[in-house]
Design goal:
28% of the residues lie in helices and 31% in strands. Helix 8 packs parallel to helix 9 (375-387). The longest helix is centred in the first third of the chain and has 15 residues, at 38-52. It has 3 domains: 1-115 and 371-424, Rossmann fold, CATH 3.40.50; 130-255, no CATH class; 266-360, no CATH class. It contains 13 helices and 24 strands.
């Protein structure tokens, strides 16, 4: 399994997110007043999922058009979303730049940057490859420290470096960056394996082939040099970092799990049965997902059952197929069935959250986690997320959630002149001292503004 985590988010021109940069850790609790921009951050991720996972032909329809999502309704501006990942120890930056002017969705530019090595970006029909100058300079100066092989041993001459100069070429493929690269329509792995003697770090040449057209008889080949990862089961297969990164980023978009907001009323109604493995944003298919997990595991997984039983020790929860073939969730208290109209909304909310955590998505995003939950239950859910492997982004304006969260995990958001500003706590220890001195809780400092004043002075 490839190790990957999100480090930073960059967003320009999306709703109130005019130009923001947000540091992302394992647990991220976004704290702000109503209409401060918390939900806009979540909607930016929803938009990415519509584009790259849902392949929506016009992803702005939900918002009644592009003019309702672009900054200050200025349709001349593109929306830009950039994500910086740590993938197997490499800094990988992905950026997408798109517009919806004239009711036409169009990706203007996409970038994949393996920091310090190679940058690949696509604009319209053109793809450009640029190697980091310092990387190439170091390589050419230290060829004696490298071994190369292509089948057998091959001596790499300095003039071979001319093959990996910056190149720009036109492609007639009508495919998006991620689709084309991952499906192998653009990239093909071949070339020279190059290993640094001292560190055993592997590099591989690859070729980009321009698709043939009626006017061209030959396909152009452009070489890339990029770090490679050793395959755990195949010592002869060394996939390049940029290929692994593209696959990983697309997988993150596909598996990204967003809960925003839950439609508990619909959850209580029997739904058409489908084998589904991921909850919808509003949770309306939780019965199908829960039933699918039950069939797969042959029981209710302990990761779901145990926390639920801690909150509701007398409640049993089971998937159920109705006589007409629909699926629903049944709750029993001391063996007595609770009919949906008499069932607590909190049952469904907690079950949905625990199911989402059990699925271990690479990134779990929850809007206003406090809704329908008691403080003690909130603490259990936050602790369950915290001890797992999943990165989480959670929004709240609840003082209870704020006071349950480590200061280092909090991101404050304020709106200034219509623009949302996100700020992490710079000096958690100084804030703790400030709170003790004032005799107030963190949430009180946030609500009354003293916290922001202290942060600005830090």
């Amino acid at each position: 399994m490839v190790k990957a985590s999100l480090k930073k988010v960059f967003i320009k021109n999306f709703k109130s997110l005019h130009d923001c940069e947000i540091d992302i850790g394992k647990m991220n609790v976004i704290v702000g007043a109503n209409a401060s921009g918390k939900s806009n951050l979540i909607e930016a991720f929803r938009l990415l999922k519509k584009i790259y996972s849902g392949k929506d032909s016009f992803p702005f329809l939900e918002w009644w058009g592009y003019d309702n999502v672009v900054w200050q309704r200025n349709e001349e501006l593109p929306i830009i979303i950039g994500l910086l990942f740590d993938i197997e120890g490499y800094d990988i930056y992905f950026e997408t730049n798109f517009t919806g002017v004239g009711q036409k969705f169009q990706i203007l530019r996409e970038i994949l940057d393996v920091r310090d090595y190679v940058k690949i970006y696509k604009e319209g029909e053109w793809i450009t490859i640029k190697h980091d100058k310092n990387f190439i300079l170091n390589l050419t100066k230290n060829l004696d420290d490298y071994e190369t092989e292509y089948g057998g041993k091959v001596k790499l001459r300095k003039n071979k470096i001319k093959l990996i100069q910056d190149r720009k070429f036109r492609t007639d493929l009508d495919k998006r960056l991620l689709d084309g690269y991952i499906n192998g329509d653009v990239f093909s792995s071949w070339g020279i394996k190059l290993t640094e003697k001292k560190t055993s770090k592997k590099f591989v040449f690859s070729a980009i082939r321009q698709p043939r057209t009626q006017k061209e008889e030959k396909s152009e080949i452009i070489h890339i040099l990029c770090p490679a990862l050793s395959h755990p089961k195949n010592e002869f297969y060394t996939p390049q970092v940029f290929i692994i990164s593209l696959e990983t980023i697309l997988s993150i978009f596909n598996k990204l799990l967003i809960l925003y907001p839950l439609n508990i009323r619909s959850m209580k109604v029997p739904q058409s049965f489908r084998r589904e493995e991921t909850p919808k944003e509003d949770g309306t298919n939780i019965a199908s997902v829960y039933h699918t997990i039950y069939l797969k595991e042959g029981k209710i997984p302990e990761e779901i059952y145990n926390p639920f039983s801690m909150v509701f020790p007398k409640i049993d929860v089971r998937p159920h197929i109705t006589d007409d073939g629909r699926v629903m969730i049944k709750f029993f208290e001391d063996g007595l069935e609770l009919l949906p109209p008499n069932t607590s909304d909190g049952f469904y909310k907690i079950l949905t959250l625990l199911t989402a955590i059990y699925l271990k998505p690479p990134l779990l995003i929850i809007d206003e986690i406090e809704n329908s939950l008691h403080p003690s239950t909130l603490e259990l859910i936050l602790d369950t997320i915290g001890i797992g492997d999943t990165q989480a982004i959670i929004t709240t304006h609840s003082p209870v959630v704020v006071d349950m969260t480590e200061l280092s995990n909090i991101i404050l958001v304020e709106k200034e002149q219509g623009e949302s500003k996100f700020k992490r706590i710079k000096d958690p220890e100084k804030i703790r001292e400030f709170l003790i001195e004032k005799g107030i809780t963190f949430s009180e400092g946030w609500i009354y503004g003293d916290l922001f004043k202290t942060e600005k002075q830090a």
